[in-house]
Amino acid sequence: LGERIDRADLIMEREKMRRSAQLIVSLGGDGTLLRAARDFASYHTPLLGINLGGLGFLTEIPISRYKEGLARILDGEYKQEKRLMIKIAVHRARKKVGSFVALNDVVVSKAGMARIINLRTFVSNEFITTYSADGLVISTPTGSTAYSLSSGGPVVHPNLGVMILSPICAHTLAVRPLIVSRTERIKVVLGCGSEKVLLTMDGQVDFDLEDGDVIRAEEASYQAILIRMREKFFFKTLRTKLGWTGISGKTR
């Protein structure tokens, strides 16, 4: 932003910002806030989203009210809401080759027109099943209204301490989404013979997978801290953002 407005003096190195910032203000949509969460959550820095985008599930303040919102924050009129994050590690031939975090979800999916992939899946070392599908979404409650929902997963209240496993276009209808405790550790082994397969965090960070790769997902040691200006009405958000208006669109 500083470069765009010809104010290079406003630019701060990311590492210095991580160490010194007391609040991160995200200007954009949910995607911008997701990126900020991955960058700053480990420093326990609160995040405020100012919505310049469309849907705005996570962003708190519309751009038309940003002055009022920032003034209220300076006056201490806000709450902090903690959101579970997922830590992901990729092992190849018993060596760690990738390490990531996500606020919404981590997705194992085929690329392009590749055939279905086989994903041997374990929860805390207990074998669950081998998903034969286009992929698998491992979601937090925050991400339950994103890709997981499109894959048939449940809507989960953000205060719940769980993770959701939602297969993408599974080969059999008997395979359904699964909810597990935040304390569980999920392991996914990519079957042999798979074509190009991607690991994607929050729909933004990609990593190429190979046959036999092991993906481990568990709760991160820190949480994203979101600034809230008012009491958050989760179900009202569902009605307004997802169009859950019912027949008449009126409450009784």
Automatic annotation (TrEMBL):
Q: What's a BP term from Gene Ontology annotated to this protein?
A: NAD+ metabolic process
Q: Which UniProt keywords apply?
A: Kinase, NAD, NADP, Transferase
UniProt cross-references to SUPFAM superfamilies, sorted A to Z = NAD kinase/diacylglycerol kinase-like
- List the Gene Ontology MF annotations in alphabetical order: ATP binding; NAD binding; NAD+ kinase activity
Record's protein name: NAD(+) kinase
EC number annotated for this UniProt entry: 2.7.1.23
Q: Which Gene3D superfamilies match?
A: Probable inorganic polyphosphate/atp-NAD kinase, domain 1, Probable inorganic polyphosphate/atp-NAD kinase, domain 2
Top-rank taxon of the source lineage equals: Bacteria
Signal peptide (residue range): none
**Reactions accelerated catalytically:** NAD(+) + ATP = ADP + NADP(+) + H(+)
